Amino acid sequence: xxxxxxxxxxxxxxxxxxxxxxxxxxxxxxxxxxxxxxxxxxxxxxxxxxxxxxxxxxxxxxxxxxxxxxxxxxxxxxxxxxxxxxxxxxxxxxxxxxxxxxxxxxxxxxxxxxxxxxxxxxxxxxxxxxxxxxxxxxxxxxxxxxxxxxxxxxxxxxxxxxxxxxxxxxxxxxxxxxxxxxxxxxxxxxxxxxxxxxxxxxxxxxxxxxxxxxxxxxxxxxxxxxxxxxxxxxxxxxxxx
Length: 241
What we know:
This protein has 241 residues and is mostly helical. The chain folds into 2 domains: 16-69; 80-241, no CATH class.
């Protein structure tokens, strides 16, 4: 007996829809779940470490909930976020103009720059299925054509601001424990503590991007779009596997 509905249209089983959703969104889901697990692990470990410091200073430990809303947890989280988004912001805009011969992370050598409207399928060259703002020739088209880098830049600035606000609160808590005077936000962002926290993350992110761009010239990862095809010559640029 047929299970096809009277309309003649086939229905998709819930299990099949779920499987298709996981397949189509596997990359994003993998990293989002990994992020949540790592954040949870950081919270647990950070809470234990923070309480160890309190006990060693002769103070009472705090609850897990109190730690999650503390400036110490906030500054540890945001200082990592701002460095990651700085990495993406710089990489997105730098790769518009800068090229690296032989790297799949680079555009082809002759394509440095913003490229033509035809190549980018904007304005009169937009397709029927192009995003609506891609066809706009006013401020909407200008803004949308730079939206990825701009959003990364805004998130970087906001997370950097959050780091500075949480950082001065955490710093002043330590000052008060040591019976020392607190400092202002303006004093904190010019302090060694703020820039030590900031630059130790920046240098690692910039090194990671440089390593990926250069090592991918000579090394391969079969099946990965971050690598050239295994048999591609070292000089092949802007080619993904």
